[in-house]
Amino acid sequence: MSQFKFSVGPWNVHTGADSYGPETRQPVDLETKFARFAELGFSAVQFHDDDAVPNMNNMTEEEIKAYAREVKKLLDKYGLKAEFVAPRLWMDEHTKDGGFMSTNAQDREFAMWRAYRSIDIAKELGCDLIVLWLAREGTLCAESKSPVWATRQLVDAINKMLTYDETIRVCIEPKPNEPIDRSICGTIGHVMGISAATIDPKRVGGNLESAHAVLAGLDPANEIGFALAFDKLFTVHLNDQNGIRYDQDKSFGVENLRSAFNQVKVLVENKFWEKGYVGLDVKAMRTTSDEDGYEHLKNSLAIFRALEDKVAKYDYEYANKLIEARKFEHLEMYTMNLLMGLV
Ligand code: XUL
Ligand code: MN
């Protein structure tokens, strides 16, 4: 039995469309997703603002809150919690050039409106976490904005959110590139810098996504550990990624099992179950059928739990003796044998 609670977003069950081709699966309605998530053993759902309240741009603030209250009832029906709400600042006409760092003042206002509405929605859904995946907060043309100005814009935007509501926490999900060419806040280290510069650093932390760390050429377990060292890991997006290319969101552990093991190990060693949910951000392959549209979630959960068992079996006494003697060849092989089921 896992000690952790798991969360997932509605976008993780999707139609299979990509930049080069149309849908390959039927759309699934929100309630059906909730029912399946609960059945698969998830405890919480992650939302973009408009996953919870579609068409929100055309609604009043009161209408948005009322709609969110209905979604909360639907969550309750399936025994699910909401984990976070993330303003979707990359789809709209107003966010062509980013949100908080857009070169256009009206667009920056739009981004703040969505950030405030995300907070309203989160409160109605009963959660206190706002995730900022800063999709377009950077540059397509390097000379188009000053990195100093852009960084300060982000700090200002977060300060406004912290002031708007004194109970919410803001959690940046860093990614070094895609869809932009260069991000302003690309790694967990950047997130720690931003957090320290805000008016309430203890309410500003990070969401480490395994694939995003790999895209930055970094080790996901060490990135998780870095945030944990400052008590600023608010959630995680576990998945996998085959090297530095487009963002793949593969099932957790399918590309690099040893790296996945070390991610689970650092979460277990630091009792992350006391701090947050283990979120999955995984995508089904395009060839996957409707019937198999949840297999990637099942597989990711199964791999996480199997690795949790491996961590439970890990012989720390033996490992520590090897570490003391600097017998790292032996330590490495012990780990590999454990993963291969040979010890
Ligand atoms: C994008 C990504 C997003 C965020 C949520 O790479 O990971 O799905 O997790 O907006
Ligand atoms: Mn993610």
What does this structure look like?
The protein has 343 residues and is of the alpha/beta class. It has a single domain, classed as TIM Barrel. 44% of the residues lie in helices and 13% in strands. It has 12 helices and 10 strands. It has helices at residues 30-40, 49-52, 61-77, 105-125, 147-164, 188-197, 210-215, 220-229, 257-269, 295-313, 316-324, 328-339; strands spanning 6-8, 44-48, 81-86, 129-133, 138-139, 169-173, 182-183, 204-209, 233-238, 278-280. The strands form 2 sheets. It has an 8-stranded parallel β-sheet with strand order 3-2-1-10-9-8-6-4. It has a two-stranded antiparallel ribbon with strand order 5-7. 45% of the residues are buried. The model has no long low-confidence stretch (mean pLDDT 98).
List the helices and strands and how they pair.
Layout: E1 6-8, H1 30-40, E2 44-48, H2 49-52, H3 61-77, E3 81-86, H4 105-125, E4 129-133, E5 138-139, H5 147-164, E6 169-173, E7 182-183, H6 188-197, E8 204-209, H7 210-215, H8 220-229, E9 233-238, H9 257-269, E10 278-280, H10 295-313, H11 316-324, H12 328-339
Parallel strand pairs: 1-2, 1-10, 2-3, 4-6, 6-8, 8-9, 9-10
Antiparallel strand pairs: 5-7
The structure holds D-xylulose and manganese (II) ion.
